[in-house]
Every structure is written in C-alpha cells, then in structure tokens.
Amino acid sequence: MRKNVFIFDQNKCVGCHACVVACINENGFQSPDQWRNVHSSNNPHLPQLPLLYLSLACNHCDDAPCLKNCPSLAYSRDEKTGAVIHDPKKCIGCKYCTWACPYDAPKFNLKSGIIEKCTFCNHRIEDELKPACANLCPVGALDFENIEFNREESVESSPVPVNIGSNLKTVKLRKETGPEMDLEIFKNQTKIDIQTKKHNKITAQKEWPLIVFTLLTTGLVSLYTSGITKIFNSTHKHIFTGFIIISAALSILHLGKKLRTWRSIINIKNSWLSREIGFFALFFASVFCNFYLFNLPDLLVACFGLLYLFSIDMLYRIATWRWELKIHSAQTILIGISLFAFFIGWYYLLVFIISFRLTIYVYRKIVITKNDLILSSLRAILPIIAIIMLYNSQYYILSLILIALGEVIDRIEFYNELNVPDPKIEFESQNK
Predict the structure, then answer these.
(1) What is the pLDDT at residue 247?
(2) 305-341, pLDDT tens digit by residue?
C-alpha cells in the first residue's frame, strides 16, 4: 500500500535542529514544546558513548491513538494525504491524547488551554511539496516520500515498541554499535553511567482533581448502591447531591477549555473518557430522579454506577504500568467493592477484598516498585486496624476514616506509578 511516509536516516543526522526550525518557520511559534523534537542518545556528549540522534514528530499513524481516544472528536484524518489533523476549536484540553500517543506528538499549550501538534504540513503536501522539516534538512537525514510501506516495516521502524501503523520509515545504523570511535585516549578513565531522568506526564500532583473526583464519586456510588440512602431525609439528600455536583466540578478543573466540557461525551463509541463521563452523568441523573422526581429501579441505578467505575479503570489502561499484571490495588472497582461491603455490613466480604488488595499491594511494593516503604507500611496497616475496630460499633466512623485514608494513599501511588511511552527514554536506553 502506497502512503506518505517520513524517512529518517540515523546514519546522516547530525542533530543540527534545522528540521525543528523549519517547522516553526512554516507553522508559527510553538509553545511550550516544539512539534518536532530531536532526541539525543548522549545529551552530555560524553566521549565514551556514541552520539546519535532521532528526529521525531507526529507519525500520522494508521491506527492513531489520539484520534481514537479523543473524547471530543477534535482529531480527524485527511483521507487524501493521510494526515491526522487536530481541530483547536473542538479541543477541550483534557490532555488524554498526550497519554495515548506513544510518540509524544500532541503538545499541551498551557496558555491557550488546548493541544497542538504536527500537521504533516498538509497544505504543502496538497501542493505536491514536502513538509518543511523534510524539505530543509541540510544533510538529507529526514525525507518524505509516497512509497509502498506495510505494517511489518512500520513496526520495525518504530522507535517505540508499538504496532499502530506509524508512518515513519527508519534507516537503521549500518553498524549496530554506532559510529566508530577511537577510545584509546579515554582508556584510563572511569566508565560513566548516565542515569536518564524520566519526566512523568501523569503524577498525583498534576492530577489531584482527578484523584479527589474518582475517590469521592466511588464512595458516593458505593454508598448509594448499599441502600443506605433510602433512609435519607431531605437534608441528607441535598448533601449527597451537593457532593456529586462538587465531584463534577472537580472533574472539569483539569480541562484547558472548561466551557467546552459538553464535547467530552461525543466519542462514546471509541473513547473510554467519553464513556466515563457519560455513565457518571447517567448515575447522577438517575440519583437526582430518585431523590426529587420519580423512582427508577435500584438495579438500573446500580448498573450505571458500576459501569462508571469500570470506565474509570479502563481509562487508565492506555498508560504504561510498571508491571505486566493489569490489576492494581487502587482500581476504582476494587475500592467500590470494599466500601460497598463496609456500608452494607458484609464484613466477611470486606475482609476478603481487603486481603486480596493488600496481597497485590505488598507484592507490588516489595517486588516491583521498592519505594516509599514507610508510606506503604502505613497504607497496609490502616485497613487492618479499621477491620479490627469494627468489632466495636462505636468505632464505626473512625474505621471508615482509616479505610478512607488508606484509599487516598493507594490512589496517590496509583497515579505516580502510571506513565506514558516516552520516545526520548526509549531512544536513549536503546543506544547506551
């Protein structure tokens, strides 16, 4: 199949950044990050290591994750050129595409509150011209052609191990060890190990509104599903509804374009973010109806709540986890079951689910992450103390507080342990 493809020759690139400058000149000022980046395998230019470069922008993939996962349908494809185009007028600034893209192509502009990205210089391609970056590369390392390029070649050329049909053909190094270097003058020097500093796009500090939102709404779903709200008086119902409204407001805080929030449910067919928001809206609407208008079947409301929690967990599956098992002790489904068992008084179920989650937690902390052991010990102890205290009913509220504190710690660690593929890190690690 013939398609428009970037061709990058690793043997020729000298890291001059002419491609980056050409992109800026053609498309205008790009803030805070350039649409095209030149990654180095040896940023300190240490003589013991080869100095290689990778020029990378949007690869306009056949199965573009940004296009598929965008909740507001801000992305589209030009069927003639193959370019994946971002429409700034439709973008809500949720940054979900920056999580989904393995090439770090979508860039969030904090000033404008929306995403920006490489356009493939679509206007130039339509005029049968090469994109500016490829056109102005002085050494011919970056080129652009319409060629036969199949999925197998795409996977082989990808700087990140993904199979999404990226339109980047990489001409590999003629020698796997990189350029020949005379290291005799450095033979008496101590070998220097470069520790790459990883920049996480997803952190608890950045996403604190989502932490509060997910924990608060999970608690509300569990509380309503347990049936306790049936004995609520008018004041309690108002408070419960108020918490749902506060939760909805928190979910909007991280959006760059808050007034476009309504667009977040447009892509329910493909985006788990749209589904999450849609099921949350259905749960809220059904609770409101039961409180103030007319009764809906409790099973229906519970299903909306369960689907909402499931959607939250699916939302984060696109991120890179630090371990292969896609089960985390802080997933909302597990939190929801724990709180449901607590509220309804099924303490045997509570002990079972807490034990299961703590087993996962301890395994992850000891075998995989091996960090924050003091905080981890606190997280592990809190639910155990809470369960012991349940034997005395007067400690019911205190037990709930201890369990809630444990959930907060676990959820914070959940966000800090997530990450998205970083082509810079991949490139550096492959060429050490």
Answers:
(1) 93
(2) 999 999 999 998 887 666 667 788 999 999 999 999 9
Residues in the chain where the model's pLDDT stays below 50: 185, 194
Which tokens belong to 371?
Answer: 């960090």
Beta bridge partners of 109: 114
pLDDT value at residue 188: 57
| Cα 186 to Cα 44, 183, 190, 281, distances in angstroms | 16, 5, 9, 64
Please tell me the distance from the alpha carbon of residue 271 to that of residue 278, in angstroms, as a whole number. 11
Q: What is the pLDDT of residue 237?
A: 94
Distance, CA of 341 to CA of 351 (rounded, Å):
9
Q: Looking at beta carbons, which pairs linking 27-35 to residues 24 or more positions away fall under 8 Å?
A: 27/119, 27/121, 27/132, 30/107, 30/116, 31/109, 31/111, 32/107, 32/109, 32/110, 33/107, 34/107, 35/105, 35/107, 35/116, 35/117, 35/118
Q: Do residues 191 and 233 touch, judged by C-beta distance below 8 A?
A: no
| Alpha helices in 136-199, H assignment, sequence order | 151-157
Rounded to whole angstroms, the Cα distance separating 351 from 338 reads: 9
The Cα 182–Cα 178 span in angstroms is: 12
95-124: pLDDT as tens digits: 999 999 999 999 999 899 999 999 999 999
φ/ψ region of 177 (left if φ > 0, alpha if ψ in -120 to 50, else beta) reads alpha
What pLDDT score was predicted for residue 177?
Answer: 54
The DSSP line for 231-288 is: G--HHHHHHHHHHHHHHHHHHHHT-S-GGGGGGGGTTTTT-HHHHHHHHHHHHHHHHH
Percent of residues in the chain assigned helix, strand, coil, to nearest 5: 50, 10, 40
CA-to-CA distance for 114 and 101, rounded, in angstroms?
16
Tokens for 387? 């369960």
> Is 328:414 a contact under the CB 8 Å cutoff?
yes
pTM: 0.87
Q: Which residues pair with 76 in a beta bridge?
A: 85
Residues in contact with 76: Cβ distance below 8 Å, sequence separation at least 6, in sequence order: 67, 84, 85, 87
Q: Which domains does the chain have, with CATH numbers?
A: 2-178 (3.30.70.20), 208-416 (1.20.1630.10)
pLDDT given at position 190 = 54
Q: What is the pLDDT of residue 240?
A: 95
At 424 the pLDDT is: 80
Distance CA 274, CA 364 (A): 30
Q: What phi, psi does 46 have (nearest 5°)?
A: -70, 140
